[in-house]
Please model this.
Amino acid sequence: MRKFLLSLLMLVIVILTFAAKEITICWASWPPADALLALSEEFTKKTGIKVKGLFVPWGQFMDKVSVEFAAKSPTIDILIADSQWLGWLVEGGHIMKLNDWIKELGINLKDFYPNLLQYYGEYPAGSGNYYGLPCETDAEILIYRKDLFEDPKEKAAFKAKYGYELRPPRNLFEMRDIAEFFTRPEQNLYGFATKFSKDYDVVTWDFGWAIWNFGGAYWNPKTMEVAGYVNSAQSVAALEFYKSFVKYAPPGAATYSFDEVNTAMQTGLVAMAIQWAAFAPGFVDPEVSKTYDKVAFMALPPLIEGDPNTAYVPLGGQGLTVSSYSDAKEEVKQFIKWFYTPEIQRKWALYGGLTSFKPVVESEEFVEMYPWNKALRDSIPRLRDIWNIPVYAKLLTVTQENLNAVIAGTLSPREALNNIAREHEKILKEAGYK
Amino acid sequence: MKKIMSDRTLVLLFILPTILLLVFIVVYPLIWSLFLSFTDYSVVGTEKPHFVGIRNFAELISDKYIWLHFRNTAKYTVMAVAIQFFLGLGIALLLNREFMGRGILLTLMLAPMMLSPIVVGLFWRYILDANWGVLNYFLSWFKIGKIAWLGDEKTAMISLVIVDTWMWTPFMILISLAGLSAIPKELYEAAEVDRASAWFRFRHITLPLISPLLLIGLLFRTMDAFKMFDLAWGLTQGGPGTATSTISIALYRMAFQNFETGKSCAFAYIILIIIIGMSNIYINLLNRIQARGGG
Amino acid sequence: MKVFWSIILIVIVVIYIFPLFWMISSSFKTRVEIFSMPPKFFKFDFTLKNYRRVFYKVSGWGKFAREVPSEFPRSLLNSAIITGFSTLLAVILGTLSGYAFSRFEIPGKSDLLFFILSTRMLPSMVIVVPIFVMYKKLHLFNTYHGMIILYIVFNLSFSVWMMKGFIDEIPKEYEEAAMCDGYTRFQAFWKIILPQTYAGIAATAVFCGITAWNEYVFALILTSEETKTVPPTIAGNVLKTTGVNWGEVAAASLIFLVPVIIFTFFVRKYLLRGVTFGTIKG
Model:
């Protein structure tokens, strides 16, 4: 009898140990995270492994992760990490190298776009060491009021004023014309909204669509030179151009972050907005958007039509990484195996995630799924990221301050970019890169 | 007489827990913080703290932004507390008589104080919104154009003062009312018999008798305004730029966004020294005024 | 003349109460109505959805959307536990210490009292950094007892000074008479002094309770999902990708305000007396 009870107890313990294993996914607290958690229920149904979400508001996301990893806590198993965190995560030993698992699980890297693999997972660039796989592939896209664009009266007035047809902008200058045209404060309508705020990485990443397409850059990643790049004549011209949009934005736009841009578009305050594709569902949701049936999406226009060197699009989104301190690595491996299959990636897209899994993205039905998917697909080859070295946070603070000062009018573009060049050179030198 | 416990034991028992708790939560961390302030420690780093001497302090004192934060805090404290003082006293004077619904009115007026400051800051973002806020709507009645209250550096501090005043004037009202209600009616009656003017009554009866309480209220409000974080964080997060960046916000950013733990401890000590100095001066001032005018 | 001042009072009161009214009405509006210009004051589509959203948040989108319980109920419980225990203990300790300081000559009394007062002047930020480091090392991070201890100390200076002030008002003769009648010091304290201090206890409990209930900074930094209280939860939910729903923020804030109002209402008689007596002798 005792033996029986003992073995029963052992059985229970064994079951409990295995049943108790669950995976915790840490991400920012926003709908894609909810979507991932909802999708994970299918994983649980299939394998019995529970999935828990540790979702933190964007403003505290990085702080939370820093603290957990500094304490080497096993709380986080999977971290859906911002692309720029790659450097400090890898160099701090906080995330696992995935090359062995990729081989073991038979994940075909050709199913991913090479630029995305690099941005979301390869560190250092070109090394072939993968620490993350693309999970949420975000791009800045243009949202516009197609009802205004298709209105005959508006079309006539526009043609009269500018000499060409009113249509979704084919280049950045057309975008500016349209912004000017629709700026009518008396009607509580403005032409344009984007994220000028100095919070987090907001304005720095947004400025990408101007600085790169004018031929400028934040730095040269191979030589780590900043001076001569961020304050080159092209970069200054880009900033002048970027700043010229402020007068077509609603009052208070200098502090616009994700939420304010969303609200501006959803309340019908602006005719066009540049925003991350991850927020797109909110624009067509009748519960939250007054303009849910009046909006359309497109990839950002280039500076010069047909010239890919002026067609870069800021990359956003997060990659899937595995915490080195996780105590559920076997379960995480199963999750990764399940997640990176065409069937599940397709479901991920349906649930509202932004997939970049080639078989799904290049399929016919992808464009039909949601009105912004075509914009996303068009943007993927054009995506470009900024820094991911560990000291990026200091570099970011400098650019955020200075760029936002230009928007607020307290610094001239040339002064701001010179400041950035000077500060960045100092920071890179202190960090030992030069 | 059987004494279950001697007086000494009683006193010890009554005071010791308080002192122990304060030592544990206040004194010990402060000492540790003093130690950390001389290091380059970062709570998310993997290294042990390295001694760097007075480098943190030197960097802070020579950083022009630090003095900006102090200036912001001083500006905000002086404006807010002054307005709340006069407004609170004025409204209390108006409320200091019996009328129907006084109880309910009083409870309603005290409501702002009972909300969480972070929540007040957050919700006032909506009221002060440049395009959808109700304040700009009311201003448009007077033909005043849209003001970007929280988006414009020039008006952001004013917005903070407005919200703080809305929230804490009830405190001064409460204090003033408490003081007013303690004044014996006979004094006023005597003054009326002597045909004293309303101003005379106020200056020679009301003011002296409520000044002790008012000064205490002033002390508490000043101390609270100086260290305020939640309200500004909810309303503007210190922005736009550094327009509403108070010392508490600056300290939070240094410690929990840049994770410069050692340096933030140094900053905390600089703040502490200034506060101790200020409150000493303040309390001396209050004691002098109280001795002169009170009783 | 009286009419003039009455009108002024009414105008002031209306301006003052308006933001509160706006909060209440916003909590019943849909998002589309909240962002309408001109603002809708009385005529709008009344909805209880915001209140529902406070307790059940939507997960997923479109046809995958479903309701899941939010963190709010848990955070409400956390707030109740942490505020309840810390206020109780802060008042108890304050009363005991206040009595001791009031009645006895303790070496270094005035210095001790000033030290206790000075802890109130500390900006939370100043001690939160070392406490964060300390709590992590002592495994007090994200625990109920850790937060309770912290909130007790947070309120202790106020509690000690208030109760001391109150007890100062009660003539020493009462206890001495009782002790002559055979009471021990402790019995005199318990049976004679304490009942006289109920007004002070009520006032102290209200102020300490409200302070702890609404506290944000320590809760933000020293708690994680298990023990997070309501203020950081509301603040954390402000950014949603569908934009801030002010209606939900209003609804959550009002729900959070209700216990405070109820508690204050019950002790309102003691409040005014409490404020007067306790602070004069400060």
Summary: Chain A touches chain B through 28 residues (CB under 8 Å). The mean pLDDT of chain A is 90. Residues 2-131+318-353 of chain A form a domain with the D-Maltodextrin-Binding Protein; domain 2 fold (CATH 3.40.190.10). The longest helix of chain A spans residues 2-19.
